[in-house]
Structures are given as structure tokens and as C-alpha cells.
Amino acid sequence: MKYNLNLESIIILCFIGLIIYCVFRHFKHMENFISVASQSNTLNKNINSEMAKQLDLIKTLSKSPEFIITDYVPHYDIYNKYKVDTDKILDNQVNTVNKHTSQKDKDLIQLDDTIKSLKDFAQMDFLEKENTKEINVIKSHNNGTELNVELTNTVKDNPFSRRNYLVKMNDGCLKVEGNNNYNVVACNKEDKDQIFNLDHVYNDTSYKNKLDPAFSRLENLENVYYPFSLIKAKSNGNCLKQIHGKVSVEPCREYEGQRWGSLKK
Known about the structure:
This protein is an alpha+beta fold. The chain contains three helices and ten strands. The protein has three domains: about 20-65; about 70-130; about 135-265, Trefoil (Acidic Fibroblast Growth Factor, subunit A) (Trefoil). The strands form two sheets. Strands 1, 2, 3, 4, 5, 6, 7 and 10 form an eight-stranded antiparallel β-sheet that branches. Strands 8-9 form a two-stranded antiparallel ribbon. Mean pLDDT is about 75; it is low at about 1-5.
């Protein structure tokens, strides 16, 4: 049996075949999509189920004592105890050192007081001896020149009171006025301008304290021999000076000629 297919019939047949193929592919694709969707749903269900299990596990663990999180740290207690104990030890050491230091300071103060007392005693003993001994001659440390002196008052009740002396020379007594004019006049115990006091000196400090404040610096102490006396005019506080046989009255300075020894002859 023969079929005569013209071009139009062939085109129609091809078109019908194409339609059938497209319909087949569509149904195949829908089948695959439904399968994938089903698998995806299954996977989501599995994931959700696993997540629910993990959440339940976390809730269970969070209620367990081993996994409860608190602020308590055992090692911090150990550190605190160590710090407190260390601070106590250090405080005790500091207190001990402070006590020893305080005691040493007290001992030093007591020693200083003792030394001062001994110095004061030595000074007082020296002054008492100097003030109570009989003096009628003063001798220059410069060249050994001697001048006679005469005591004009006696204070028996107080050996530390000042003794007043007349300084004799050229058959008279030295007189020093307030303006420092000085000359030799007839001796008169009642004339205040003729009165001299002996200031006894026994060390560098005493020496410096008895000098004129404008000239109190000491420089040449290697040739100073203690004790000695400064002979001061009562009228103006200037010192008797003797250099190379010349007698003068000048402000008290570090002069060898103003240093005098006192003795009894």
C-alpha cells in the first residue's frame, strides 16, 4: 500500500511529532521537579528534626550542675588569700622597721642630749673656774705682752656673773668712750668707760659667737689655741688689741692680737 505524501503532509506530521515530544518533555520535567521538591521537603524535615534534637540537648545540658556558668572562680580565692597574707607580712616588716627606726632616732636624740649635757657641763665647769679664779694679768697671744688688770666687783653668790676689770697701762687705766675714742686716764672704778669684761672662749663655736657679726667668719684656726679671753670694753663691746707693742680698741675680729690669756701673778 502506497502513500503519497506531499510536502504539506510531511510538515504537518513533523509538527505533530514536535508537539508530542514537547508534551513528553514537559511531563518528564514535572516528574523530576516533583521528585526534587519531595526530596527537598524530606531534607528540610530532617534538618528541622536534628535542630530540635540539638536544642533539646542544649536545654538538658544547661540544667546540669557541671555546665552551670557562675561568677565564682576558685583560683581567684587563692590569689586573694595570697595577697592578704603577703600584705600582712609586709605590714609587719614595715612596722618592725619603723619601730627600729623610731628607737634609733630616740637613741640618737638621747645621745645628742647627753653630748650636749657633757658639753654644757664642761663649758659651765670651765666658765666657773675662769670666773672664780683670781686674775691680775692678761697676756697677749700675739707676742706675749702682759698688761695688769684689777677686779672692781665681786659676785660671790653667782660665779657666772660678769667680772668688771680696769686695764692698767702707763701709770693709768684705759678708757674707751662709746664713739670708740680711747686714751689713758687716771684709774677710776666708778667710771663706766674704764670697765672691761673678760669673755672666755673655749672652742670655735664660742669664738665665732663672740665676734662682731659683721666679721664672724673664721678662716685661720690652725694657729688658735684654746682657751683664751676677749677683753671687751663695756662702753661699746669692742675688743682690746695688741700688735707689735701697740695697743688699740677695735671691733672684735679674728685677730691673734685680740686673744689674751688670763693669769694670776
